[in-house]
Amino acid sequence: MVEFERKEKYDFNDLRKIMRILRSPGGCPWDIEQTHQSIRNDFLEEAYEAIEGIDKDDPVILREELGDVLLQVVFHSDISEENGDFTVDDVITDLCKKLIIRHPHVFSTEEKYKDVKTPEQVLQNWNEIKKETKGQKTEKEELSGISRALPSLYRAQKSAKKMRKADHAVVCDNKTLKARLKDFTDRSDIDTLGELLFTVCAAADRAGINAEEALYKKTEEKIYEVG
Question: Cα–Cα–Cα angle for 17, 22, 26, nearest 5°?
């Protein structure tokens, strides 16, 4: 039995101490044996559950699930500290530096940023600075920077958007969509379905529609209809 102060309010340092106790000899057998890989899917699940709180506009759910997301951040950081890789303070330091560097219109005195006033200008600067700091000099490098862990529809649409902005837009007019659909109907294999889905995502990007959100809402409707 480990004694830990019981109080009405805890802070981030308390969370770190609790995590260390759980991972230490005499702590929790389950927590001790976890690795980055073993709790990978837990991170995904907690993130999606936080999104559900946002979708439902439910602050009670969101508050709880954000706590679970924060636990995953501290958990992975603690594992990394034990491995001699980095600490949660390193994570916070990197984040603070990134926020300062990518908001030069707020934190920089450079003349070229003084007229940045709109969200569109901010996003443009953010993306340009991101490419520079990550050393992304080619379109291929920028596309490769899109996380492979994203849901496939979301990743496809982000890729199609970057291709369009780089003047390599995917052809996604009605004629092409019909051709892709016919190809799939005729062959019904994974490659032709992939072509069809990617073309649909490119069409959604061009129309300003979030493909992931559109499919989510339609799935909800279909499930409701069954009831």
Answer: 120
| Calpha distance 197→191 (Å, rounded) | 10
Let me know if residue 7 belongs to a domain.
Answer: no
Positions of the chain with pLDDT under 50? none
The two three-digit tokens of residue 19, written as one number:
């995590």
| Token representation of residue 11 | 């802070």
Three-state SS annotation for 50-83:
HHHHHHCCCHHHHHHHHHHHHHHHHHHHHHHHHC
Range of the domain at 33: 12-86
Residue 199, CA distances (Å) to 44, 194, 212 in order: 27, 8, 14
pLDDT tens, position by position, 44-75: 999 999 999 999 999 999 999 999 999 999 99
Q: What is the rounded end-to-end Cα distance, in angstroms, of the chain? A: 49
**Phi, psi angles (nearest 5°) of residue 4:** -140, 135
Among all chains, which residue has been given the structure tokens 């759980």? Answer: 22
Q: 188: alpha, beta or left, given left = phi > 0 and alpha = psi -120 to 50? A: left
Please indicate, yes or no, if residue 107 is contained in any of the structural domains.
no
